[in-house]
Write a structure and sequence with these properties.
Its main location: membrane. It is a multi-pass membrane protein. It is found in: Cell membrane. The chain is mostly helical. The chain has a domain of 216 residues: MetI-like fold, CATH 1.10.3720.10.
């Protein structure tokens, strides 16, 4: 297990190096000039040259990259071209909203997905199974921006039950929970559909196993058979889907944050891309990539906890 963690951490470093290089180069190759955006339409050619020199944009791209990499190794991710704020501070200010949204969405997805998938498997070919499969297909197909707009129209505009957007209140207050419901449902619906489909197929495979038939022949009650013997083994592939989806949810918050006007990392990334704010874009992408890899490492560790037969020697 220790060897697995060391290997994965080494892979994490190499992966982040590769991602940092690709993002850095793609931002510098893409059309547009940060100096022009910062200087504005009235800036003269000499002003633009001064801005480029001040930000180091007049040096070769590879030199800029290695300077940036050296700063990262010292914990310095640079400063925003727009605001002059440290990238680390800008991300840490917005990150709590994104992580709250991602965790809440994952909770919604796991609860709905596992429960719907298990019930559909137990009641195979019944109206419950057909309904669950239909909603799973719809959940995967519906885009977040449309679903979010519809939820706002129904529950915020027409019924006036929930706020339109935000995440300005603490999640430990009633108002904070209300602000989180619509974005969490919007972001978690597609993941819930995937988890439900995986839970159903995994449970159907497990309940047809020999050890389940043996337990049933010995007179084990149906409830114990499903929730004690079958569920644990059925959860192994489901955990894979949950881990991958949680990493993806942090990237998926971009659209949801735009729809619900949430000041999170995703919205920060969109604004930085539009303004050609290289350091902020690079910092946010590295954050999302790093969390994605760490979540997958945690998933591998959870495998061993659920099924002791799994080893990583």
């Amino acid at each position: 297990m220790v060897g697995l963690i060391v290997r994965r951490l080494a892979q994490l470093v190499l992966l982040l190096l590769g991602i940092s290089f690709l993002v850095f180069m793609s931002m510098h190759i893409a059309p547009g000039d940060p100096a022009t955006i910062i200087g504005g339409p009235t800036a003269s050619a000499s002003d633009l040259e001064a801005i480029r020199a001040d930000m180091g944009l007049d040096r070769p791209v590879l030199v800029q990259y290695f300077d940036y990499l050296g700063g990262i190794l010292q914990g310095d991710f640079g400063y925003s071209y727009q605001t002059g704020q440290a990238v680390t501070d800008a991300i840490l200010t917005r990150f709590p909203n994104s992580i709250k949204l991602a965790v809440a969405s994952m909770v919604v997805a796991v609860i709905i997905g596992i429960v719907a998938g298990m019930i559909a498997a137990i009641k195979q070919n019944s109206w419950i199974d057909i309904t669950s499969t239909t909603f799973s297909l719809a959940g995967v197909s519906i885009p977040n921006f449309w679903l979010g707009a519809m939820l706002i129209l129904i529950f915020s505009v027409n019924l006036q039950w929930l706020p339109v957007g935000g995440l300005n209140s603490s999640i430990f207050t009633i108002q904070g929970i209300k602000e989180l419901i619509l974005p969490a449902v919007t972001l978690g619906t597609a993941s819930a559909a995937l988890i439900a489909r995986m839970s159903r197929s995994s449970m159907l495979e497990v309940v047809r196993s020999d050890y389940i038939r043996t337990a049933k022949a010995k007179g084990v009650r149906q409830r114990s058979l499903i929730w004690v013997h079958a569920l644990r083994n059925a959860m192994i592939p489901v955990i894979t889907v949950i881990g991958i989806n949680f990493g993806g949810l942090l990237g998926g918050t971009i659209i949801t944050e735009q729809v619900f006007a949430i000041n999170g990392v995703g919205r920060l990334m969109i604004d930085a891309i539009a303004a050609r704010d290289f350091p902020v874009v690079q910092g946010t992408v590295l954050l999302v990539a790093g969390i994605f890899v760490v979540v997958n490492l945690i998933v591998d560790l959870v495998y061993a906890f659920i099924d002791p037969r799994i080893t990583y020697n």
